[in-house]
Amino acid sequence: MAMHLASMVHGSARDREGQYQTQHSQLQHANYYQPQPPQPKRQYSTPTSAPQHSQAQPHTLDYQYQRHPQSPPSPPVEDQKPSLPSISSLLHIADADKATSESGNQSPRSQQSSPQPQPQTHHQENLSQSFRSTGSPSAASNHSASGSYYLGQPLNSMEPHSQRQHAPIAQGVKRDTMPPQSMSPYNPPTYVQSPYSASPGASSVTSYYSPEPQSYPNLGMYSQRPLPSNFQPQTMPLPLPSPSANGSNPWQHHHYISASSQSAFPQSQDRYICSTCNKAFSRPSSLRIHSHSHTGEKPYKCPQPGCGKAFSVRSNMKRHERGCHASSGATMTA
DNA sequence: CCCTCTGTTCAC
DNA sequence: GTGAACAGAGG
């Protein structure tokens, strides 16, 4: 797959000008599709789902979608983990004044490299990541091991259509307690690099697609649970506990579900839960697409010149083309 | 086995 | 006409 992506990335973007269907390539090309650049006005806003983004796509939430639930992008904070204070600084400190207790905070330079507002952020990050990982504190330190997405975005926008047909699980769980701030582990401040290809792991991981102009809200937004839809979410130690404070990890004792138990449940069940609306999906990709409804992301733009419409779902865009530009465009190769 | 992509279908 | 979810196909 990786190679596949890679190949796509290579010769795609321009190859299919008419198809603009290389999301993969998008990650490399900031302008994924926009055959026609001039589209100053917003086509429309989605009143239903994304109240806030009406103003602009650049959302507050970043969504770095990593394709591997189990190997999320190593957050920059981790990457650029506060390196130990340089010896010189230490010396300096010891020498001059320890009172400053520089050691207490991040090394000065680490801050510059990773604009981490406060250590807390890091904490919460781990927290949000870990709590669903498996409850294993160790997982917290390296959430990459866990396979969990979490869709936790500031928007409280509940699903407009409210769980269309199934709202199996999580319904009972109240995430509202989740403060937006704590929700986005990887906040924009964390990445200052280009919004595109924001995925920190882009370098190493085949961070395939990051079409949106704004970096992905990231996995922080999603939660993948190894649990069946019928499994009660009560185990979810979500919000409140501020374990980091006292060191006693709440997750520690709360066991999710044993492997054996897991096997008991069909894995095909909805395992990916949108933390925003608690809707469950059986596929990560579905969840990702779904997330667009919350974020208002519309990565797929109608290639037809003059038509600035954008869609969050590719097939919808295609359909739009067929329907609206069938006669005019016919750019569709297929 | 898991994932993404695409087309289809439903609901508004 | 469009948003959104599902299911099948393909990798």
UniProtKB/TrEMBL annotation:
Please name the GO terms that the record assigns under molecular function.
zinc ion binding
Q: Highest lineage ranks of the organism?
A: Eukaryota, Fungi, Dikarya, Ascomycota, Pezizomycotina
Which superkingdom, per the lineage?
A: Eukaryota
Gene Ontology process terms (BP): regulation of gene expression
Compartments where found: Nucleus
Per the UniProt record, one Pfam family is zf-C2H2
Bias (Polar residues) ranges: 19-31, 45-58, 126-147, 179-217, 226-235
Alphabetically ordered keywords of this record: Metal-binding, Nucleus, Repeat, Transcription, Transcription regulation, Zinc, Zinc-finger
This one is known as C2H2-type domain-containing protein
